[in-house]
Amino acid sequence: MLDNLTSRFGNVLKNIRGQAKLTEDNIKEALREVRLALLEADVALPVVKEFINNVKEKALGHEITGSLTPDQAFIGVVNDALIELMGKENSTLNLAVSPPAVVLMAGLQGAGKTTTVGKLSRLLKNDHKKKILVVSADVYRPAAIEQLKLLAEQVGVDFFPSETSQQPVDIAKAAVDYAKKHFYDVLMVDTAGRLAIDEEMMNEIKALHAAVNPIETLFVVDAMLGQDAVNTAQAFNEALPLTGVILTKMDGDSRGGAALSVRQVTGKPIKFIGIGEKVTGLEPFHPDRIASRILGMGDVLSLIEDVQKGIDEEAAAKMAKKLHKGKGFDLNDFKEQIQQMRNMGGLENLMSKMPGELGQLSKQIPEGTAEKAMGHVEAIINSMTPKERANPALIKASRKRRIAAGSGTSVQEVNKMLKQFEQSQQMIKMFSGKGMAKLMRMAKGMKGMKGMFPGM
């Protein structure tokens, strides 16, 4: 995500290192590089000009205090300017209305609108404890209604049925009426997309908007479109009173033009970003965290939140009790660790948010490699008998051959997995007894770290 920008900004900062102070001469070349980086990222030209002027003005008037070096001071200035450009803080959904709060989703075909309805429904249900109803008013795209129905089942929210023979406005009105009578907190309305902006599409979405009077009208757009994404958002914003934007496919956007331009050009905040195909792949858009990623400093705050969501405190407490009684860490526990890693978004997701070299390392790992490796480990463990999982010492040569055949892997892979397990086992032993209790207290105290970071 935004890899090209991160790489270019890294080169910019190298040019300032070793300077005694920030002057117009020594930041001139840096600003030229920043300008080129932004233009290559497909950021709108007026936005680039304003950004460069902003950075130049702040950098020249910047007092370097304490132990800061000029390159660190420049990073601070650029970081602040990026945050200001993208909206300063996360803009949350406004659901403060007499239920149901209607959320209307708009966008072009192929932007991932229906998938985003599923992702956002899941987030509101799980993180905000809302009772959600979803409805599809897309009567044109084949299987659109069925797709949303399946997504609703997958994320555990209710689905309001509709037919392709109905009119979109009639569907939406019926769904609002049903949501009121059955005390839903939020009604999500998925609308039809088109391959391009046209008058018929805009008239239909306007009529839908007038019929349901949504509290939130969100424009869903593919981040990889760059400047085209911003232009499309602007066109929708002129036709509809948009309240925010959701950028999808951010994991595939190495440039970042849309993320840096949308707020400035449309005046509407980016509220969420979509990452990957999984229903868990939707994050609130935090300008300060994105700025930190762009500058190669990672995203520690999102990393902490992922870990907090992934930790099953009940399971962790159960394991601590087990170890305290002297019972060893077995392959059932090892498998549970892998499942918790998945709950945190997977190894690749966690590494991408780490600062410094670890974050850079994640970009060198081919996509899906870590997930595939974890899948192999699970398959190997699933091929074992309950007795083998509880007592790995039993697994000798003949058992390894049987396990490899049953899991579709090789004996070498089984040996590699057992070695990884032994390494985890040794680490867990270090935290057994009082050490494990200390680790539990650290996990529970992670929320206390928020005060150490501005904007949390």
UniProtKB/TrEMBL annotation:
<keyword id="KW-0342">GTP-binding</keyword>
<comment type="subunit">
    <text>Part of the signal recognition particle protein translocation system, which is composed of SRP and FtsY. SRP is a ribonucleoprotein composed of Ffh and a 4.5S RNA molecule.</text>
</comment>
<dbReference type="GO" id="GO:0003924">
    <property type="term" value="F:GTPase activity"/>
</dbReference>
<dbReference type="Pfam" id="PF00448">
    <property type="entry name" value="SRP54"/>
</dbReference>
<protein>
    <recommendedName>
        <fullName>Signal recognition particle protein</fullName>
        <ecNumber>3.6.5.4</ecNumber>
    </recommendedName>
</protein>
<dbReference type="InterPro" id="IPR027417">
    <property type="entry name" value="P-loop_NTPase"/>
</dbReference>
<keyword id="KW-0963">Cytoplasm</keyword>
<keyword id="KW-0175">Coiled coil</keyword>
<comment type="function">
    <text>Involved in targeting and insertion of nascent membrane proteins into the cytoplasmic membrane. Binds to the hydrophobic signal sequence of the ribosome-nascent chain (RNC) as it emerges from the ribosomes. The SRP-RNC complex is then targeted to the cytoplasmic membrane where it interacts with the SRP receptor FtsY. Interaction with FtsY leads to the transfer of the RNC complex to the Sec translocase for insertion into the membrane, the hydrolysis of GTP by both Ffh and FtsY, and the dissociation of the SRP-FtsY complex into the individual components.</text>
</comment>
<comment type="similarity">
    <text>Belongs to the GTP-binding SRP family. SRP54 subfamily.</text>
</comment>
<dbReference type="InterPro" id="IPR042101">
    <property type="entry name" value="SRP54_N_sf"/>
</dbReference>
<dbReference type="InterPro" id="IPR004780">
    <property type="entry name" value="SRP"/>
</dbReference>
<dbReference type="InterPro" id="IPR003593">
    <property type="entry name" value="AAA+_ATPase"/>
</dbReference>
<feature type="binding site">
    <location>
        <begin position="248"/>
        <end position="251"/>
    </location>
    <ligand>
        <name>GTP</name>
    </ligand>
</feature>
<dbReference type="InterPro" id="IPR000897">
    <property type="entry name" value="SRP54_GTPase_dom"/>
</dbReference>
<keyword id="KW-0378">Hydrolase</keyword>
<dbReference type="GO" id="GO:0005525">
    <property type="term" value="F:GTP binding"/>
</dbReference>
<feature type="binding site">
    <location>
        <begin position="107"/>
        <end position="114"/>
    </location>
    <ligand>
        <name>GTP</name>
    </ligand>
</feature>
<keyword id="KW-0694">RNA-binding</keyword>
<dbReference type="InterPro" id="IPR036891">
    <property type="entry name" value="Signal_recog_part_SRP54_M_sf"/>
</dbReference>
<dbReference type="Pfam" id="PF02978">
    <property type="entry name" value="SRP_SPB"/>
</dbReference>
<keyword id="KW-0733">Signal recognition particle</keyword>
<keyword id="KW-0547">Nucleotide-binding</keyword>
<dbReference type="GO" id="GO:0006614">
    <property type="term" value="P:SRP-dependent cotranslational protein targeting to membrane"/>
</dbReference>
<feature type="domain" description="SRP54-type proteins GTP-binding">
    <location>
        <begin position="269"/>
        <end position="282"/>
    </location>
</feature>
<dbReference type="GO" id="GO:0048500">
    <property type="term" value="C:signal recognition particle"/>
</dbReference>
<dbReference type="InterPro" id="IPR022941">
    <property type="entry name" value="SRP54"/>
</dbReference>
<dbReference type="InterPro" id="IPR004125">
    <property type="entry name" value="Signal_recog_particle_SRP54_M"/>
</dbReference>
<dbReference type="InterPro" id="IPR013822">
    <property type="entry name" value="Signal_recog_particl_SRP54_hlx"/>
</dbReference>
<keyword id="KW-0687">Ribonucleoprotein</keyword>
<feature type="coiled-coil region">
    <location>
        <begin position="13"/>
        <end position="40"/>
    </location>
</feature>
<dbReference type="GO" id="GO:0008312">
    <property type="term" value="F:7S RNA binding"/>
</dbReference>
<dbReference type="Pfam" id="PF02881">
    <property type="entry name" value="SRP54_N"/>
</dbReference>
<feature type="binding site">
    <location>
        <begin position="190"/>
        <end position="194"/>
    </location>
    <ligand>
        <name>GTP</name>
    </ligand>
</feature>
